[in-house]
Amino acid sequence: MLRSTKFPAYVLSLCLLWVGSAHSQGPSQPASGMTTHDRIQAAGWWPTRRDASRKEFVGSARCADCHSDIYARQAQTSMAKAGNPGSSTAGLQSRPTLSARQGQYMYEISNTGSGSQYRVWSGQDQLAGPLNWIFGAGDIGQTYILERGGNFLESHVSYYPALHGLDLTPGQMAGPPKNLKQAVGHPMEEEDTRLCFGCHTTGSMITDRFDPNQATPGVTCEACHGPGAKHVAAAQANQVDRAVKAILNPGRLKPADQVDYCGACHRSSADVASFPAGTLGLLGVRFQPYRLQKSKCWRKGGGITCLSCHDPHQQIVRDATAYDKYCLTCHQASQAEAKSAVAKAPACPVNSVNCVSCHMKKYDIWAAHATFTDHYIRIVRAGEKYPE
Question: Which helix (H) or strand (E) holds 223?
Fold first, then answer.
C-alpha cells in the first residue's frame, strides 16, 4: 500500500530541486529581500524569467566552444539532468519496468526503447500513454508529467531510489484514488506548470509564451547565465568588454542577491515567507537558501552564500569532510590559533573536522523517502525540536 498524506502541493512537490556582473547593456543587480515573483518582474535576468525571445538563446553547445571544460562538468550534474522528455530513455536509466499498487489501481511505467509508457488500470478499466516529461535526475526521486487534451498532469506515483520503486508522489490526494481519473495524476494549474518547467528545463517560456515542446531539457548554461546570443556575438567579434557585459555571472552578485538567485528554484526566505502559516514545518529543510539565511553565519556576516561551498558546474560533493576547508576559511582551526584577517570566527571547541556532521543536522523526510541536510548552520542541541 502506498503511504499518503495531504500537504500543499507547492510544499511537497517532487519536481526536484538550482549561476555576472552589473552593467548597462546586460542584467543588473536587483535589490535584496524580494520574492522570486517580484524579481522576475524587475529589470535584469533572473532564473525562470519569461520575457526573452527565442533568438536570444544559442544553446549550451555554443557555450562549449569557449568553455568546454565547464560545459562538460556541468552536463554531468543533477541540475543538467533535472528534466528529460519522456522520449528520452535516460530518464528511466537502467529500470526497464516499474510497478506499484494503490488500492484497486495498478501502476506500470515501462521503458519501450523509444520512450516511456505510463499505464494505470483496475480490471478492464485502464489508461495508457506516453510520458511527456520526467522531472528529477533520480538521485532523490523522479516525478512524471503527462499531457492530456492540452493539460498537464503530475503522475500519482513517483520513483524513489531508496525504494528501488514507485510510491505516492508528495502532495497527491490522500487515500486510495476513487476513480481512474484521480488514479492517473493531479491536474497542474497553469502557473504551477510554468514554475515546474522553469526550474527543470531551459527556455520553456519565450516572450511570455509557454512552449515546453521547444524547451531545452535540464538546467543548462542559459538558465542561470541568461540568454547568450549577444555574448557569443561579441566574443566572436573579439569585443571582450562587451562580451562580459552581455552575460550574467551570478558569482559577482551581492551575497543577498546571490542566495536569492539560487532561491529562485530552491526557495529563498522571502519566498517561504509568502507560504500560508503552518504549512511548512519539517518540509522546509528542503529549501536550502531559506535555511542558510537563518544561520548566524549569514546573519552576522552576510558573506556566506551557496557558492561559498558548492560549485554549480560540478556534481554536488557528498563527502562531509570536503566541506571542512570552507568552514575553516572563516573559523580558526584551533583555539590556540591567532585570529587572522580572514579567520576571525572562533574555533569549534570540539573538533576541526567533519564540521557539517555536527552543525548541519540531517532530517528524514518520509514523504520523499530521502534524508536532507539542514542548511541552517548552528550548534545543534541534543533533543531539540526542528527549528523553523
Answer: helix 221-225
Determine, yes or no, domain membership for 323.
yes
Quote helix, strand, coil % in the chain, to nearest 5: 30, 20, 50
In a domain? residue 275? yes
- The region that residue 207 occupies, defined by phi over 0 for left and psi between -120 and 50 for alpha, beta otherwise, is left
- Which run of H or of E encompasses 363? strand 362-365
In a domain, 269, yes or no: yes
- pTM confidence score: 0.88
Q: Provide the domain limits for residue 294.
A: 256-373
Q: Is residue 132 part of a domain?
A: no
- Give the Cβ contact number of residue 72 at 10 Å: 11
Q: What is the pLDDT of residues 242-301, one digit of tens each?
A: 999 999 999 999 999 999 999 999 999 999 998 888 788 899 999 999 999 999 888 876
The kind and range of the H/E element at 273 are helix 269-273
Give how many domains the chain has, as a whole number: 1
Assigned C-alpha cell, 312: 554549480
Q: At what angle do helices 190-200 and 255-266 cross, to 10 degrees?
A: 120
Contact criterion met (CB below 8 Å) for 5 and 11: no
